[in-house]
Specification:
- With 260 residues, the protein is of the alpha+beta class.
- The protein contains six helices and nine strands; from the N terminus they run E-H-E-H-H-E-E-E-E-H-E-H-E-H-E.
- The strands form two sheets. Strands 3, 4, 5, 6, 7, 8 and 9 form a seven-stranded antiparallel β-sheet that branches. A two-stranded antiparallel sheet has the order 1-2.
- The N terminus is likely disordered.
Length: 260
């Protein structure tokens, strides 16, 4: 066993070992005790849950062969363990499937927020202010003027459009108002859906799932009016890992309705 580290015949093994800061191989061969100040842990093949830890005590507990340092022995054992994993296509396919399922679970995750109404499309909204009692209601084909604010829910709640950001960049809030025709496909689906039925001076808060938000080509409005806002939004929406929740929080205020 001094000449190598071989897994038992019981199946593929996961190698996990603790690295210790140590002296040269000569000192180890002479029986000098390695320093135990630091023991950072390194795990190889962490995705292979359920595999045995048979080699965990071998990488550094055994004295390596003459001329072979402890670090080289550990790296050799690691390469052997990785080889075992690579030599099993069925195991690799199983672990890949688990990773894909985990990513899909995160991307499809939907949190139901209390006090918000849920529509068939998956949009959640809450009326903060119902608007004027006799205010004109917005409907399909009407042209509307809307103010808006936007926040990333799971990226530290970072704002990507607010009055404070606008004023800090010298932008007059009134110039940042959004004007569009309901149903013309120029704004994100969440806003196009949510503004319908609102009365003038009404304010609505929206929980926007990714499928009702921004398009990959970034053509849909509204877009952040400041550089910092664009950067915060793009950091979330451009993430390709599949592990970031892209749900957004958007507040809209209906200022004016022009009937068709």
């Amino acid at each position: 066993k001094r000449q190598g580290f071989a897994p038992s015949a019981g199946g593929p093994c996961l190698l996990a070992f603790s690295l210790r800061s140590f002296g040269d191989s000569g000192g180890a061969a002479a029986g000098m005790k390695p320093s135990c100040r630091r023991r950072p842990r390194v795990a190889l093949g962490g995705a292979a849950l359920g595999l045995c830890l048979e080699l965990s005590h071998l990488a550094f507990s055994l004295v390596p062969p003459v001329g072979l340092s402890r670090r080289d022995a550990a790296l050799g054992a690691a390469a052997g363990a990785v080889g075992v994993l690579q030599s099993s296509p069925a195991l690799a396919a199983e672990q890949q499937m688990k990773m894909e399922e985990m990513k899909q679970g995160v991307s499809k995750r939907r949190k139901r927020y209390p006090d918000f109404k849920l529509t068939e499309s998956g949009l959640q909204y809450k009326d903060i202010d119902p608007g004027r009692t006799n205010g004109t209601l917005a409907g399909a084909g009407d042209t509307v003027v809307v103010t808006w604010e936007g926040y990333t829910i799971n990226y530290f709640g970072r704002p990507f459009e607010t009055r404070t950001l606008q004023e800090g960049s010298g932008i007059v809030p009134e110039q940042a108002q959004l004007r569009f025709k309901i149903g013309d496909g120029t704004v994100i689906p969440a806003i196009d859906e949510a503004v319908r039925g609102m009365a003038e001076e009404g304010v609505r808060q929206l929980i926007v799932p990714v499928e009702l938000g921004y398009d990959a080509e970034k053509r849909l409005q509204p877009r952040p009016t400041t550089f910092s806002g664009q950067r915060a939004l793009d950091f979330v929406m451009d993430n390709k890992g599949g592990m970031m929740d892209k749900t957004l929080l958007i507040n809209i205020g209906l200022k004016r309705v022009y009937k068709q």
